[in-house]
C-alpha cells in the first residue's frame, strides 16, 4: 500500500515513472526530505517537520518550500490511505532536472511501517559506536558540508547501518573526533540518568529531533528534568538507559552497545513511550 501526491493536491500511481534520469536528487542527492509518522489519520509534529524542511532547503539554497502546497500533499496522502492505522509519510524536495527549467521536484508518499521497525520498537536493538569523521564546531566553520541538514545524501548513513549489520548490530551511534556523541544515522540519541533525559546539542552539526522534542515536552510536564548538552561516548555503557528516537521508530531502547549488554530498560521504555504518546 502506497499513496503518491503532489503539491497541488493531486495523486498519481506510485508504480508509474515519476523522476527523470537527470533529476539532481537522483544523480547527486541534491535535495531534502522529511519523514512523518501518521497515526489514525493524524500527522505527528507536522509543523516542526515542515519547519525543518524549510531550514534544510535554505541550507542547500533550494527554492523556499511551498508550505501550503506541502499541506495539500499531506492531506491528499492521508485522505487516500487505506492501509493500517500507522503510516510513514515521506516528503521529498529535489533541485529538479539538470537539463530542465529549474522547477524543483516535489512529492509526498505514504508508506507502511516496516515489520523490522515494529519489531525493534517492541524488542529493542543492539547498536555500535562509529566515528562520523568530524569534530564539534565544524558545522559553523564549514556550512557547505550541510551538517544538520536533512539532505538526500544518505549514502554514508546507510553504509554505517550495513557495517553495523556485519558486526551483528541493528543500528549505530555516531561519535565525533573528540569522543563526544552525535546521533544515529536516522535517529536522535536520548540518555537517561537520575530521572533526567539528556540529548546532544544540535549546534555540533546534527539534526534537531522532532520526536526527541515531543518526548522532552511530555517528560517535563511529568516532572522529569531534560537537558541538551554534550555527551561523552565513554558515558554510554554505564548510563541508566539509552534510547534512539525518531518519527517512525518512536522510542526504541538500546539493549546492547558495542557487544556489551546494558541495563534492562524495559520499564523505562514503557514509561517514556506512554509519555510520548500522551502528546497525541
UniProtKB/TrEMBL annotation:
Signal peptide: none annotated. One of its GO terms (molecular function) is 4-amino-4-deoxychorismate lyase activity. It comes from the Bacteria. Keywords: Lyase. SUPFAM superfamilies: D-aminoacid aminotransferase-like PLP-dependent enzymes. GO terms for cellular component: cytosol. Pfam families: Aminotran_4. The keyword Lyase applies. One of its GO terms (biological process) is carboxylic acid biosynthetic process. Its EC number is 4.1.3.38. Belongs to the class-IV pyridoxal-phosphate-dependent aminotransferase family. This is 4-amino-4-deoxychorismate lyase. It comes from Kutzneria kofuensis. The lineage of its organism: Bacteria, Bacillati, Actinomycetota, Actinomycetes, Pseudonocardiales.
Amino acid at each position: 500500500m502506497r499513496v503518491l501526491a503532489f503539491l497541488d493536491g493531486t495523486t498519481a500511481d506510485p508504480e508509474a515513472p515519476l523522476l527523470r534520469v537527470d533529476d539532481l536528487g537522483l544523480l547527486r542527492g541534491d535535495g531534502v526530505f522529511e519523514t512523518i509518522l501518521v497515526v489514525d489519520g493524524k500527522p505527528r509534529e507536522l509543523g516542526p517537520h515542515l519547519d525543518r524542511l524549510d531550514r534544510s532547503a535554505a541550507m542547500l539554497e533550494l527554492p523556499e518550500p511551498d508550505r501550503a502546497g506541502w499541506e495539500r500533499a499531506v492531506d491528499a496522502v492521508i485522505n487516500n490511505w487505506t492501509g493500517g492505522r500507522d503510516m510513514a509519510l515521506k516528503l521529498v524536495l529535489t533541485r529538479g532536472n539538470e537539463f530542465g527549467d529549474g522547477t524543483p521536484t516535489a512529492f509526498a508518499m505514504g508508506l507502511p511501517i516496516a515489520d523490522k521497525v515494529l519489531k525493534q520498537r517492541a524488542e529493542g536493538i543492539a547498536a555500535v559506536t562509529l566515528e562520523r569523521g568530524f569534530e564539534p564546531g565544524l558545522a559553523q566553520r564549514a556550512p557547505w558540508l550541510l551538517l544538520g541538514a536533512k539532505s538526500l545524501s544518505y549514502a554514508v548513513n546507510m553504509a554505517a547501518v550495513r557495517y553495523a549489520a556485519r558486526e551483528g548490530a541493528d543500528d549505530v551511534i555516531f561519535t565525533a573526533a573528540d569522543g563526544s556523541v552525535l546521533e544515529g544515522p536516522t535517529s536522535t540519541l536520548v540518555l537517561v540518568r537520575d530521572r533526567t533525559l539528556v540529548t546532544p546539542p544540535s549546534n555540533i552539526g546534527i539534526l534537531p529531533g522532532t520526536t526527541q522534542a515531543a518526548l522532552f515536552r511530555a517528560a517535563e510536564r511529568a516532572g522529569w528534568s531534560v537537558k541538551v548538552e554534550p555527551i561523552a561516548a565513554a558515558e554510554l555503557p554505564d548510563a541508566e538507559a539509552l534510547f534512539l528516537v525518531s518519527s517512525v521508530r518512536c522510542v526504541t531502547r538500546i539493549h546492547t552497545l558495542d557487544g556489551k549488554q546494558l541495563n534492562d530498560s524495559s520499564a523505562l521504555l514503557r514509561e517514556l513511550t506512554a509519555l510520548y504518546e500522551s502528546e497525541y
